[in-house]
Design a protein that fits this description.
Strands 1-2-3-4-8-7-6-5 form an 8-stranded antiparallel beta sheet. It contains 4 helices and 8 strands; from the N terminus they run αββββαββββαα.
């Protein structure tokens, strides 16, 4: 999935869920969650190491795709009580393509209140024109901006909230390569591709 933003140093992020006025606020979509789009995995790991955060997972999914998960967030989250959360970074050809923060809640009422605040804050800064899709307990809100796709993934059953920022210029390069692979009839990973294509219906074998 596409999987959210937190500012580095003095840069303010709506994903901290801080009370704020959207009027006059400035959003730098190049630096979600303290990591600038396009930076290398090595530079990201250096930032993580200097912040004394723990890398939970660093996995290579293909020659071009790698994901790093760290416990907590680079600049911290202003929520009281502080929920469990982790930052997820996705690199394509060693360039940061997407960044998200996943919040996990134990209390259903706390999940609901943060969810409402989050949606209000995101709509106030990014605009009210967003798409919403819902299936069972899973709900996705998306904002398609000039160079960035912002996704809010809400799961009421698991009581999780994930806000993801995807850099479109890098994503388009990945999409173009996936298309070229399809045209060469390279089977790749059928299960993963079915998810990326949102084609969950089983095809009839001949």
């Amino acid at each position: 999935m596409y999987c959210v933003r937190v500012w580095l140093a003095l840069v303010f992020s709506v994903c901290f869920l801080l009370p704020f006025s959207a009027e006059g606020s400035q959003v730098d979509l190049r630096i979600p969650h303290g990591f600038e789009f396009g930076i290398s995995r090595k530079d990201a790991l250096n930032l993580i190491e200097s912040s004394k955060l723990k890398v939970v997972s660093d996995r290579k999914y293909s020659n071009d795709l790698r994901k790093v998960i760290l416990g907590g967030s680079l600049a911290g989250v202003a929520l009281d009580p502080l929920p469990d959360h982790e930052t997820r970074l996705e690199f394509y050809k060693d360039k940061l393509m997407s960044s998200s923060i996943l919040f996990s809640f134990e209390d259903e009422s706390r999940f609901a209140s943060v969810k409402n605040e989050l949606i209000g804050n995101l709509a106030g800064v990014l605009g009210g024109a967003f798409k919403m899709e819902k299936m069972f307990s899973y709900e996705v809100l998306s904002w398609d901006l000039s160079d960035t796709v912002v996704l809010a993934n809400l799961n009421s059953r698991k009581k999780t909230i994930e806000v993801e920022y995807v850099h479109k210029p890098i994503l388009e390069k990945k999409t173009a390569k996936d298309l070229r692979r399809k045209r060469r009839e390279d089977p790749g990973d059928p299960a993963r591709q079915m998810f990326l294509d949102s084609n969950f219906s089983a095809q009839e074998r001949r």
